[in-house]
Task: structure prediction
Amino acid sequence: MMEEEKIVSIEERIPKLKEKRRKKSNRTLLIYLTLFFFLIAIIVYLQSPFSNINTIAVEGNEVIPKEQIVKYSELSLDTNMWRLSTKNTEKLIHEHTIVEDVKVDRKFPQTIHISVSEKKVIGYAKHESELHPILEEGVVLNNVEVSLPRGAPLFESFTEEEYLQRFAEELVELPDHILNLISEVHWQPTEQNQYKIVLYMNDGFIVNATIRDFASKMKSYPSIIAQLEAEEKGIIHMDVGVYVETFKKK
Result:
């Protein structure tokens, strides 16, 4: 009697085991089918225009035009954004003389984001009616199209590279709010002083100075003009001592 009950019990379980295996097989098949169609969708997407770049966003550039950065990147709107190498694109953009650092990222669904940091442009040198940017190390760039940075002074008559580089080193030490006050800088060497310079300021003053220790002396410029009357303009001498010669007195 006991054996019959056991046989019946096992026979009742067989359909349940079969159903359980069937459901497990169905789940496995569903997973494989989902994975298969997902891979197919990825392949179709990568081959379609929907994976091409639609927007190239550039930020951080002040003097380099966006069009120039895009040109260096060699990217276009028919470039597949998932096939390009961001590292290679960064390397191409970094070849620009003024680019200090660059980062290229993909932004879903169709945007390439380029973030650049630029070398500091401290001024411009005029040559045959053209303006050439001067980097903070005193290098004058030729044949480089840039936008004029706000407040950058014009350098005149710096015919010798040594003195231009020495003066560039001094300008880097100046705070931006003082640097932006300088309109023009003229190198006017004499037999007694090869470092003599004359500055024309945006606020109407003229500064006679020397390249040596220029930054440390020029930092006192705001406090000097603050002691003068608002309408009082003149020449501020910072070459040997520091004193003011007003136009009225002259």
About this structure: The chain has three domains: 2-47, 51-118, 121-246.
